[in-house]
Write a structure and sequence with these properties.
The protein is of the alpha+beta class. Among the domains are: 52-69 and 88-137 and 151-189, no CATH class; 200-302 and 318-468 and 478-510, Vaccinia Virus protein VP39 (Rossmann fold, 3-Layer(aba) Sandwich); 601-663, Phenylalanyl-tRNA Synthetase, Chain B, domain 1, CATH 3.30.56.70. Helix 24 (649-658) packs antiparallel against helix 25. The chain is globular. The N and C termini lie far apart (117 Å). The N terminus and C terminus are likely disordered.
Length: 698
């Protein structure tokens, strides 16, 4: 028996060697394809496999499979020579002989381009072309006593071994892999060459990115060019903090390509000690390459036990960027920082407790939330699950999203006996950015928690008001609303939203200093937005801001703490200490009252409340009309047609109606005059009822 088995093994080995020699000599593309497919089916899933021939990077590689020389048919066409004279007929490497017969080069080129390349599915720089080889059998058709089986067109998945017939199904199949985090191909044995890595430049910082840098995935380094404004705002906030104390420990908890940390270290130099962290090994290697690309020193730290020693080693080398590979929660638990930025993929609520655990007093925590589907009330159940807030879609949904995030930040800080002061809150199309200053102590935590309350929102007229403080239940919450929709409309007209942050969203002094830093470093996109934010923080329509004038206005204290500015004297600085005399407490209370008066909550959209059949005035003119009526008014960055004002909605509509012009033609002048009289009478009645005494006297 042993002799028989050995003879069988030897014969099998000889057969395999002979088959290999035959395939090498013949060079038949179809047989090599079948052998590679049979090998793929036999090898386990963990073994690295060769990619299918229908998966190619460039069209030139697809032409090489058909033995087409690049430019062979184009040169012949330009020289007006006949390709068929010297050319040989060649088969298509992705079609069987029954499907497509061998043809000349110019016809084969058109066939590959139109029937294979243009209908391919793209993923991570690769093209999955349609394949007509006998890889995907179609269900047999029974004709009489014979069974006819056909081979159909199909796609080979680059991630798994599936073969899918329809292109739309293939795209859905790839998307399911991406949603599960399965983005590593088991067919690609050789990584992409470094030449395929693109080098992008932003704010004098070079970054090498992957070909799929614009697609957010869990396993790849993600770089979004649309977040340039976000990075400039965070850099301006860090530059302001660097003027207060030097050097500061700053952390980019989710480095990805390391673009943000590189900008900090390259422009602020010795004022900051940058730590870039990421839990993905590919991202860490990408960060190291980008550091060397920008001629920055790198110190790699992947151990969780040696963080204290790493801090001591970095005291002398302030220009070195430390790159760490660990979970963001772990590094924030182990080390203390002055500035922490959180920018995960989605919500930031999973990292808030760790961020406020060891952040230093008067430090800054900035966070970017990109889960806009839940924050903008498109997925309300997700917002309730992540933030514990009930929201609906309103005209001020972007500010509602910012207040939801700040409420979650305030609760997380209070659990660590810390309070917050909101320095900046920005909600744009792709993200919600919140920058807060950390104040240690249970008293500060209690003050922050008291600013979290519920909002009563009328669904008929869009009027809104924060619920009054107190633990006693009120019999009718509708009485708190300024409108009378509940009495005139049937059923329930209002909903309770929240809990939300009811305090101010901006710090005017900090925003001025951010504008000064953005002008100093040439951040053009951030300058225009910061101008709008300063106007919104002060609730004014003035847009004339000088860099030097704004710097002079920074001689003030924030949060009851002296802040170092370019114009303050060193003798007046007391770092980390609060003033305890009674005069200072009264001053702080008065400043808080002024800030609440200067920054009204929420805004109104002028298009939402326009009158049908009337042409409303221009936005800037309408702002002047409201200002002349005695109300604070400004534009808002949340909505280009939004108006932030402390005027009630009834007075807002009255002023809008008063200065709107009818759209009637010449034959309806009499009706227009009657409507004008009605408008003037209604406006006078509402003005005497709702206007302040000084406005009615005018």
């Amino acid at each position: 028996d042993g002799v028989v088995v050995s003879e069988k093994v030897k014969s099998n080995n000889l057969d395999v060697k002979e088959s290999k020699l035959e395939t090498e000599e013949k060079g038949d593309e179809e047989e090599s394809t079948k052998e590679s497919d049979s090998n793929i089916l036999d090898v386990s899933s963990d073994y690295p496999r060769e990619k299918h021939i229908s998966i190619q990077r460039d069209f030139a590689e697809l032409e090489k499979l058909a033995n087409l020389k690049e430019g062979e048919f184009t040169t012949a066409a330009s020289q007006n020579t006949d390709v068929q004279v010297t050319d040989e007929k060649k088969p298509c490497p992705l079609c069987s002989e029954d499907k497509y017969k061998a043809c000349y080069s110019h016809k084969l080129h058109r066939h590959l381009l139109n029937f294979h390349w243009k209908v391919s599915v793209e993923f991570e720089g690769y093209r999955m072309c349609i394949c007509y080889l006998p890889c995907h059998p179609v269900k047999p058709n029974v004709v009489g006593d014979q069974t006819v089986s056909k081979m159909g067109a199909h796609y080979h998945c680059i991630i798994c071994s599936a073969t899918i017939a329809r292109r739309t199904d293939m795209i859905s199949h790839i998307n399911r892999h991406v949603n599960k985090g399965e983005t590593e191909s088991r067919f690609i044995t050789v990584p992409a060459p470094k030449n395929s890595h693109q080098v992008l430049k932003e704010s004098a910082t070079d970054v090498r990115v992957l070909p799929n840098y614009s697609t957010p995935q869990k396993t790849d380094s993600y770089f979004n060019p649309k977040m340039k404004l976000n990075r400039q705002l965070i850099f301006s906030a860090l530059a302001v903090l660097a003027k207060e104390r030097t050097p500061i420990e700053c952390l980019d908890a989710f480095g990805a390509t390391g673009i943000m940390g590189l900008q900090w270290a390259k422009h602020l130099r010795s004022s900051v000690r940058v730590t870039i962290n990421d839990c993905n090994e590919n991202s860490v290697s990408m960060i190291q390459e980008n550091c060397h690309l920008n001629k920055m020193k790198v110190k790699l730290n992947t151990k969780e036990d040696d963080n204290d020693e790493a801090m001591g080693d970095r005291e002398d080398s302030t220009d070195t960027i430390e790159v760490t590979k660990m979970d963001a929660n772990i590094i924030m638990h182990l080390r203390s920082f002055d500035f922490i930025h959180l920018d995960p993929f989605g919500t930031t609520v999973n990292y808030l407790d760790s961020a406020f655990r060891n952040v230093r007093n008067l430090g800054i925590v900035s966070l970017t939330s990109t889960d806009i589907s839940s924050l903008y009330a498109k997925a309300q159940h997700v917002a309730l699950r992540h933030y514990g807030s009930n929201i609906v879609r309103t005209e001020y949904y972007k500010e509602l999203a910012a207040r939801i995030v700040i409420a979650a930040v305030a609760r997380a800080a209070a659990r660590c006996n810390k309070g917050i002061e909101v320095l900046l809150a920005v909600a744009l199309e792709h993200f919600v950015l919140v920058v807060v200053r950390v104040l240690r102590g249970p008293a500060s935590a209690d003050d922050s928690v008291r600013k979290i309350s519920y909002l009563i929102h009328c669904q008929w007229c869009e009027e809104r008001i924060f619920q009054k403080e107190g633990n006693m239940l009120e019999e009718n919450l509708y009485q708190q609303l300024p409108c009378d929709c509940h009495g005139s409309m049937p059923g329930k007209t209002a909903v309770v939203l929240g809990p939300l942050w009811s305090g101010a969203l901006f710090n005017a002094g900090f925003l001025r200093r951010m504008y000064f830093e953005s002008a100093q470093y040439g951040l053009d996109e951030a300058q225009s937005l910061l101008k709008t934010l300063v106007c919104e923080a002060e609730c004014t329509t003035s847009k004339h801001y000088s860099v030097y004038a704004s710097c002079e206005e920074t001689k003030q204290e924030e949060c009851g703490v002296y802040i170092k500015t370019p114009n303050t004297s060193p003798e007046s600085l007391v770092y980390g200490k609060r003033k305890s005399d009674e005069v200072t407490r009264n001053t702080n209370k008065r400043q808080k009252a002024d800030n609440s008066a200067e920054h009204p909550a929420f805004y109104y959209n002028i298009h939402r409340h326009s009158i049908k059949g009337m042409n409303m005035p221009k936005l800037n003119r309408f702002l002047n009309y409201l200002s002349e009526a005695g109300y604070r008014v400004s534009r808002t960055h949340f909505d280009p047609m939004g108006v932030r004002t402390n005027a009630p909605l009834a007075q807002f509509k009255t002023v809008l109606l008063k200065y709107s012009t009818p759209t009637y033609g010449g034959g309806q002048v009499e009706d227009a005059e009657v409507l004008e009289e009605d408008r003037s009478g209604a406006a006078a009645a509402v003005v005497t009822k709702d206007c302040p005494p000084h406005c009615a006297a005018d």
